[in-house]
Amino acid sequence: MAAAEGQWVLMATGRSPTNIAVIKYWGKRDEALILPVNDSISVTLDPDHLSATTTVAVSPSFPSDRMWLNGKEISLSGGRFQSCLREIRKRARDFEDEKKGINIKREDWEKLHVHIASYNNFPTAAGLASSAAGLACFVFTLGKIMNVKEDYGELSSIARQGSGSACRSIYGGFVKWCMGKKDDGSDSIAVQLADETHWNDLVIIIAVVSSKQKETSSTSGMRDSVETSPLLQYRAQTVVPSRVLKMEEAIKNHDFESFAKLTCADSNQFHAVCLDTSPPIFYMNDTSHRYVLAVHWLGILIISLVEKWNHSEGTPQVAYTFDAGPNAVLIAQNRKTAALLLRKLLYYFPPEDKDLSSYLVGDKSILGDAGLHSIKDVEALPAPPEMKIPDQKFMGDVSYFICIRLGAGPKVVADESQALIDAVTGLPKGL
Ligand SMILES: Nc1ncnc2c1ncn2[C@@H]1O[C@H](COP(=O)(O)OP(=O)(O)OP(=O)(O)O)[C@@H](O)[C@H]1O
Ligand SMILES: C[C@@](O)(CCOP(=O)(O)OP(=O)(O)O)CC(=O)O
């Protein structure tokens, strides 16, 4: 296996982005293989602010497979992690590092165990698609260390078995997950519609409402919807197929009007399906006490603000979309509109602690474009004219805003000092 048998630790580190669906995946036709009831389309988000970083280490001295997530050991025994490990191991190829004297034959990979450490640079399990970034990174980095052929379609179908939406995080830019028809799922893969440079005017602002873990997981929520919602059947069979075609055209032609209308309509229909589920799922809020009203209100306020603004301009300026949580994802057609949007949002949701710069993460320069240099500028903001509730403000309801652009797909982190595992002990750094 190697010159100094048992003495070496081989490592690879990867970083993968999250994605936000503009045509939603909601419902499986096969729970084990994670095969969806409809196609979906997403945009990949800038990994600098929303990504998972994963280091995989392999050594003949490891007695078992182990994993740590955000510094805490988690079990790898779940079916989803096991499916991804099995599928990657099946495709592992010979590997040689002459300098380190490591030579691994294809068949050796079955006997070698892995240590995996992963870290999300944003809240886990709070509706910001940590499972998408996490499972895409898991598969991508395992694929790298095991020298799996770089077939992104195939990698996406393996990531899909970790978490459906993860298959779309295998690419940057605009991505479509084709539901496929085959029972074995081999044609249920993601494809890139256009890379992140294709439509680089778009600016994304996310209102992060809660970093608390959500109540109903997407997995169980969509299972209940499949079993009980008549609207889901109609959506999957009739609405989504034509929406997907229109969305592909909108992306190809940089047609923001169509893109925004489809995005908002699809988010609203996804939440309508959640309400049509028995018992109903309320994702745009959270079921804890006083918080319910605040967060539910926030979603409604943001939808109403965007709808009224778009209507008053005669053409859509911004699209909104909400996943399985209360965070609002707003896509502006360009930087100028994003700056105007930020002024409207900060009017209603000013920061609690007067520190403007930590209230907006990501591209902070948008604050300058919005003419917001200090908290005084926020306090002096005029009420959005299109709204009829000028006197109300909701300080403290938004934890922070993120301003980002579309991003690239998974990448290898070549700088070994950034590995999350210690090359000598084979354990996560800092343990
Ligand atoms: N970096 C990671 N590496 C491996 N697995 C991860 C990682 N991050 C999250 N996960 C897995 O995803 C689970 C969280 O997924 P969940 O769907 O509940 O939340 P979410 O992805 O943040 O929200 P949503 O998918 O609804 O947007 C974690 O419990 C863990 O199993
Ligand atoms: C609302 C969604 O974000 C649902 C994502 O569901 P997951 O991919 O998290 O579910 P599993 O496949 O069961 O892991 C919409 C979307 O991303 O398309």
Automatic annotation (TrEMBL):
Diphosphomevalonate decarboxylase-like N-terminal domain segment(s): 17-190
Highest taxon above the source species: Eukaryota
The segment(s) forming the Mvd1 C-terminal domain are: 204-413
**Which Gene Ontology cellular component terms are annotated?**
cytosol
Coiled-coil segments? none
Catalysed reaction(s)?
A: (R)-5-diphosphomevalonate + ATP = isopentenyl diphosphate + ADP + phosphate + CO2
EC numbers for this chain: 4.1.1.33
Any one Gene Ontology BP term: sterol biosynthetic process
Q: Does the keyword Nucleotide-binding apply?
A: yes
MF-aspect GO terms: ATP binding; diphosphomevalonate decarboxylase activity
Regions crossing the membrane: none
Name the family.
Belongs to the diphosphomevalonate decarboxylase family.
Biological role stated in the UniProt entry: Performs the first committed step in the biosynthesis of isoprene-containing compounds such as sterols and terpenoids.
Q: What is this protein called?
A: Diphosphomevalonate decarboxylase
